[in-house]
Amino acid sequence: MRISEIMKRDIIIIQDDETIGAALEKMSNMRVNGAPVVNQMGKLVGMIVKADIYRFLITPGHYEECPVEWVMSKEVITARVDEDVLMVGRRLRSNHIIAMPVIDEDSVVGIISIEDILDFFINT
Predict the structure, then answer these.
(1) Which end of the chain is more exposed for a tag (fewer CB within 10 A), N or C?
(2) Share above pLDDT 90 across residues of the chain, in percent, rounded to a whole number
(3) 114 lies in which domain range?
(4) Rounded mean pLDDT of 87-111?
(5) Which domain CATH number covers 116?
(6) CB–CB of 34/108 below 8 Å?
């Protein structure tokens, strides 16, 4: 089974200059724990997850004004649309991450999470 068959295609994309507050609000409204971050040219530059934001909030600061870029992971681990589900699941676990953007050529086309992988195996 390929990732493209189970990934979520209806995703939110966060701009790297958006505020942390705006990113958290978007993720909460869509009920997701993470989102790819792109620059003004649409290039993937990071991944933001709620855990990153919560860790940042422990330190007092300017939550409503700080850009996502301050807390996002800049070394993004991605999956390709044609990759095997099991291999992507192993990469999620070995890197201790909850989700990763799915890439087709240079574009973000979806996101895959540990929950998606688990649901796949439970329902298979």
Answers:
(1) C
(2) 60
(3) 3-123
(4) 93
(5) 3.10.580.10
(6) no
Strand pairing report for 99-104 and 79-80:
parallel
**Overall domain count for the chain:** 1
User: What size, in residues, is the chain?
Assistant: 124
What crossing angle do the helices spanning 85-94 and 114-123 adopt, rounded to 10°? 140
Residues 6 or more apart whose Cβ sits within 8 Å of residue 18: 67, 68
Q: Give dist(CA 58, CA 110) in Å, integer.
A: 30
Q: Concatenate the DSSP letters of all residues of 45-105 into one string.
A: EEEEEHHHHHHHHTS-S-TTTSBGGGTSBSS---EETTSBHHHHHHHHHHTT-SEEEEEET
Contact 95, 77 (CB under 8 A): yes
Alpha-carbon gap, residue 90 to 59, rounded angstroms? 33
Instruction: Decide: pTM greater than 0.85.
Output: no
- Tell me, what's the pLDDT at 62? 59
The first and second tokens of residue 104, run together, are 């087709």
**What phi and psi values does residue 49 have, to the nearest 5 degrees?**
-130, 155
